[in-house]
Amino acid sequence: MTMRRFRFLDWDVYKDARRLFVVILSIVKKLPKEYRYEIGSQIIRACFSVVLNIAEGSGKHSEAELNRFFDIALGSLFETLAAVDVLRECTLVEEKVFFEVEKLATSISNQLGGFKKHIRGGSI
After folding, report:
1. Does the structural domain 11-116 have CATH classification 1.20.1250.20?
2. Domain residue spans of the chain
3. How far are the Cα atoms of 7, 32, 36 from residue 92, in angstroms, in the given order?
């Protein structure tokens, strides 16, 4: 059996990160125009970084490189959630939307943590 070249496409963590990105785009579309460019583009970049670092890390062959990309993805995930939390505090994001983002962020964080444990165990 051959290993799939783009293995990240099968990973639930990638699918969850992609789903989170869709939610973030919908949040940004609803921001008032005066915030959409500055704040919106920052949140989009942070969340897109989660998706892209998971994908890029999956193509690395050393455990240290893969772990580094997952660490970057985690940092971007925390940045994304913090930004949405601030928007919630400013009443620019509804509570239920914040909790949807938090739920996806928790899932992604847990999955990346699981991957990192497997990396330490040498099984990825």
Report:
1. no
2. 11-116
3. 37, 8, 11
